[in-house]
Amino acid sequence: MLYSTLLKISSITWVGMVILIGLLINGDKLYSWIGNKIVEERDAMVAKLDLMFVEITPEKALRLYGSYLFCLFLLGVFFLYPSVGGGFCFGLLFTCLGWKLPGKVIHAVWKRRTKKFVLQMVDGLSLMSNAMRSGLNVPQALQLVADELGNPISQEFMLVLSQNKLGVSLEEAMSNLSVRMPHDDIEMFTTSVNILKETGGNLAETFESISYTIRERIKVESKIAAMTAQGVMQGIIVVLMPFALGAILYTIDPERIGPMFTTIPGWVLLTIMMSLQAIGGFAIWKIVQVKV
Q: What domains does the chain contain, in order, with CATH numbers?
């Protein structure tokens, strides 16, 4: 018992000394680097939210992001309580691992919004094609789609029309659309409108061809997603299995697995394990990603 207590005190002392020496040597650079990274993440998240018509001030985003990082640190400390050194290190590890998670989540939501826009384009282009055949021009056809279909295509087309009413040329407004939502199908649509508006051509037939191309692409992507679903599930199970086994062992025999969370060798092994898990999960994810 005494040896165990001394070992814990020694571990905490060594960790504290290493952190203190590091802060004394490069404290200013470390704080500056962390501050720049936080601001960069904040700006990226605010920019993505603005593309999705979600208004948030940079100050509010910074407060929310800072609170999130602090909660991650407290979560790591809570897991290894009452081990002060282990909790501190685990809190830092949690914070480092979750550093970019909010940005990744917002990016995933933005990609999902772009995918939904592409799905709506199948019906939207068919509607525009019929509108062009009935004698409407491009802005009127865009207005018709914005009135008949929901978001996000309604928001994006209304923004294009608003920019056009404020003096921006239709070609530039359509180019801005492809910049806000970078996707091959959207770029094909905007480029076709800009080229045919200058050179002349049958826009109705062009819209039908683009709609058919998008529909066929969606079929291929759905087939690939069904074929890779098993690999995705296997990757999720492989990544989560060590954490589930660790929780089970900690519940059954906490004294035997306790040194993993209270000693320096245990913290090193945990760091290596989580790093390898992250690398393996990323490798599996890249393998099952098939782009069309």
A: 1-99 (no CATH), 110-216 (1.20.81)
